[in-house]
Amino acid sequence: MKTVAAALGGSLLFATAALAQAPTWSPPDPSQRCPSKWGPNDERGSMNRQTAAAVMNAAKLIKTGEVIELGHVLGDKMPFFGTRRFDVHIKRTFMNQPSNRRGSNEEIVISEIGQVGTQFDGFAHQTHRNSHYNCFKTEEIAGRGLFTKLGIQNAGAFITRGVLIDVAGFKGVEMLGDNYEVTVDDLEGALKKQNMTLKAGDAVIVHTGWGKIYGKENARYVKSCPGLGVKAAQWIIEKNPILLGADNWPVEVAPNPDPQLSLPVHQLALVVNGVHLLENMKLDELVQKQAYEFAFMMQPLKIQGGTGSTVSPIAVR
Amino acid sequence: MKTVAAALGGSLLFATAALAQAPTWSPPDPSQRCPSKWGPNDERGSMNRQTAAAVMNAAKLIKTGEVIELGHVLGDKMPFFGTRRFDVHIKRTFMNQPSNRRGSNEEIVISEIGQVGTQFDGFAHQTHRNSHYNCFKTEEIAGRGLFTKLGIQNAGAFITRGVLIDVAGFKGVEMLGDNYEVTVDDLEGALKKQNMTLKAGDAVIVHTGWGKIYGKENARYVKSCPGLGVKAAQWIIEKNPILLGADNWPVEVAPNPDPQLSLPVHQLALVVNGVHLLENMKLDELVQKQAYEFAFMMQPLKIQGGTGSTVSPIAVR
Amino acid sequence: MKTVAAALGGSLLFATAALAQAPTWSPPDPSQRCPSKWGPNDERGSMNRQTAAAVMNAAKLIKTGEVIELGHVLGDKMPFFGTRRFDVHIKRTFMNQPSNRRGSNEEIVISEIGQVGTQFDGFAHQTHRNSHYNCFKTEEIAGRGLFTKLGIQNAGAFITRGVLIDVAGFKGVEMLGDNYEVTVDDLEGALKKQNMTLKAGDAVIVHTGWGKIYGKENARYVKSCPGLGVKAAQWIIEKNPILLGADNWPVEVAPNPDPQLSLPVHQLALVVNGVHLLENMKLDELVQKQAYEFAFMMQPLKIQGGTGSTVSPIAVR
Amino acid sequence: MKTVAAALGGSLLFATAALAQAPTWSPPDPSQRCPSKWGPNDERGSMNRQTAAAVMNAAKLIKTGEVIELGHVLGDKMPFFGTRRFDVHIKRTFMNQPSNRRGSNEEIVISEIGQVGTQFDGFAHQTHRNSHYNCFKTEEIAGRGLFTKLGIQNAGAFITRGVLIDVAGFKGVEMLGDNYEVTVDDLEGALKKQNMTLKAGDAVIVHTGWGKIYGKENARYVKSCPGLGVKAAQWIIEKNPILLGADNWPVEVAPNPDPQLSLPVHQLALVVNGVHLLENMKLDELVQKQAYEFAFMMQPLKIQGGTGSTVSPIAVR
């Protein structure tokens, strides 16, 4: 069994330590979560909640025409996780010959563009072993260069109600602790204080305050962060959101308090439930304006077969 | 003077042919167009027309919550102009060690991402000699890797009234000719037939039908195209639009009927007037549904110092 | 068994057809070929034959100082296998400020640089299932970004006797057929005609004539090619060469006459025997000058953890 | 004149300081150095000294077959000047379908590959204003993506006598000072101590000891360095070498003691005299073995239109 388990997937590292106790969570067996409630061929997961009704509900929230930007600028001050980068190289100006002397400039961009800046995670991005959302298998859908199923081009535009759950505000701090786990009590308490309830189709956005050090203390930013624990994420997911977002790099608390788990909320959301994640959000203006409810709008790039997309989402009210 | 002019900018090609007659248009002397009406330091041009009022006017047009995608998928069937590309390379799956066996996939994207697919042009992209919009000079703003002024990160989100001018429909064809110049009469005639008038702040989108061969006859798609002539572009620009868009690669007719001009509307819009361009739009659904008026929404990537951004704009009504 | 087989390695495609007869060759079980004759930790394979004696033997062959280039220029006319590319983007000239007005130019190169142009294959490049040369396992040596064992930086410089086996000349043609399999008889016949025998440590180079269409009929060049069959390759390998080279893209005949085999000589050489391959050689001058024996010199780039390197090898005599 | 001069070339930065005294050196007016002694169309400069005789002279020096590597490994510990990089991304293993289960790995490399690691500079790399070696003009030879003249593919292979001038050893130190200027006296003294004289066609390699901190103190390595002053470089160049090399990043002292000059030896060698430079050499083994005279061999990549090439040169004796 160990040999089979070891061989699965791409590059596997063997866990050899004897485990004294079971992990506090484990992903369900694929048979228990597939097929998806949206059908055995569904590739869109929670995007199925993006309906005309969701658009109308969001439009109703537009009272003054104010637009609040929720995305960071893509540039050299971004924190990067691991070996990722965002390189821009301006090419030589090309001066066209005809009499109007038109000069043309462009740049080549080299980046894991689905996984940098304010980023939107799709379902090709994560697996449990070799199994993605709706039990698509990595070896079957990873083609030469791109994924043949679950690509981010399936997402489409978001226009839905956005809800900001200001957990840091609820806890009376500007920024939660470097490794603070947001609990169900935190979420319930913050929503109650904001006099709000979650509804199906919401873009649920958690404010941890961690975004305060984005672009300022990048090494610390990516080393750990406060965020949703498994139970809190489960609690939100049961309310059928269209996505979970936060102003940290993984939405969830990292590392997880349980050392036997690696980013379990990524699996819980993306793999088990087909719920999208939105990371590295810029929430300072939203929080400062106490804009807890708004029309949330986002347009992921339609990268065919991509695992995600950097985005420039907005709140409108 | 000619020697100085020749030396300016990047790589210049000298026009040596004796010209028998003057070109039909020439860009005005920079002194005549600068400073911009929005001030000597303005970097945003027509985006200054994106106001709260524009948002409210757009929101009023949302009646049913229908969303129509106006952007093409970014993939290997895209037509590319010149040497541009859009390459995607999936990296090896990284299997994390802890017990929940979380596999992680991502890809590296290499592309002139401001100039591929459905693309939004900024003001760093084009010049007259070495002079950009609002007379910023290329040699002064082109840093190592990116532009220090006029970067696309200045644009922000678009939410405004969108107007589709169906010129192909007005002419009774599915697709205008390979090199057809759209005239002022065409625009006036189409708008009259649609019973509409342009207003300040509109995203003005012209349907040429050329998008029909996008991804199908790519060599033909990029070789030439129908589009706005200088006079027609000037006519729209006088109505203070926020952008000009079309379902071809340069918005304007190419090559220009006057062989002495290279894409003059690019200069007229981007350089002279600070009006954005939106190219390679996907208009088939909009046209088929006769959706001539709608809320136009677009979120360019905030690429610091970038010349443009690929985008996934939508029409909502 | 199928499940285990399926799980091994990266992305596996299942062979479902019932096989009426066995393939004409199959790679030996790893236990039969490991450890390598050079020891269980050896990463260098046939490069172990690059000794001071080999250098002296090569130096003895330098009689006139004539240098014949055996590598193609790396540029836009190269044939590419699959999705590979070689893109070059000149950056903007950077003009330094001090009085000597020093301008500096450079370009960014984006390429599978181990697998384009005249290319030298290393041992990280190929496997039998998940097993490389000397039974290193892919999942154990493929790190984030590069291979931690078997990297091409281990190769070092080649200076050894080079032998050209002019099979096309022996068969009386300029170019062997599009799918011609070079046999043991062909090799023996050509060597006999050239009045030569192979010695241990030789760089053995086969002339098929296929290089004639390199850069001229690229689609045909990569579609198939004449080259070594399994038996012929085995015959050479038994003589302990330092590498096998040819003027085609895989050294061996492709596709293999046995449809159940995919590039078996790649496995026979790189995986089973630890013998390097050198592809896409430029042999026209060598052949025209009837230079069958020469000092062969090659300097692979020391790309840490790389699978191969483009090279500019030479023949000196 | 100053205005015209300022406008020439790519991005120019204006020198505004009033200069109290003249710089200690200035590049000659182009008319004084063109055409090259090798003719008005020559693109190869000092490579014209690579003759059959040079090969034979080098071959004579091969006494024992010992090979000493002079190039660094290309990897993540390399120092980079400016914004350059060397990124390697392994792609997913591709497992071929036929029965021999052949897995294939490759990586994409993204780098200014002419300007990283042990690097060989060509003549497209540097200018005086807009003028290259042999008075080719940047705007005339910089095409879309690559240079149409002076490309590094013109260089070809080096096999010539190599001479190590151990200046650090002559001065009795392991490493010269962070900003030490090597003088004519230093060169003459070291050569005399080594009982050697320079000859035409030599690859002249200077040991400063700076290579000791390569990959160890990278920030310090690129911040400044000991190296040839203008007079010392001029002294060597008058002896008609094929290249100047050193174990630092610019061969010359940096910054130059004269603050009005930016890397003048680059101009003196590459632009004025058409002599190649070889930077970031690994000389520790050569020095430790006191190998002052040897066969120098180097094979630049034939990057069409490239400004330089990373290389893996060797010393053989």
Outline the structure in words:
Chain A is an alpha/beta fold. The first copy, chain A, has 10 helices and 16 strands. In chain A, helix 9 links the parallel strand 12 and strand 13. In chain A, helix 6 packs across helix 8. The longest helix of chain A has 10 residues, at 184-193. The first copy, chain A, is globular. Chain A starts with a helix and ends with a strand. Residues 1-18 of chain A have low confidence and may be disordered. Chains in contact: A-B, A-C, A-D, B-C, B-D, C-D. The interface between B and D is medium-sized, with 22 and 25 residues. Strand 7 of chain C pairs antiparallel with strand 4 (102-104) of chain D.
Q: Quaternary state, please?
A: homotetramer
Major sheet attributes of chain A? 9 strands, mixed
For the record, give the distance between the C-alpha atoms at the N and C termini of chain A, rounded to a whole number.
55 Å
Characterize the overall form of chain A: globular
Structural class of chain A: alpha/beta
**Number of E-type strands of chain A:** 16
Note the run of SSEs of chain A as H and E: HHHEEEEEEEHEHEHEHEHEHEHEEE
Overall average residue pLDDT of chain A: 91
Most extensive chain-chain interface: A-B, 105 and 105 residues
Low-confidence stretches of chain A: 1-18
User: Level of helix content of chain A?
Assistant: 10-25%
Query: How many DSSP H or I helices of chain A?
Result: 10
Taking Cα atoms only, what radius of gyration of chain A do you get, to the nearest Å? 20 Å
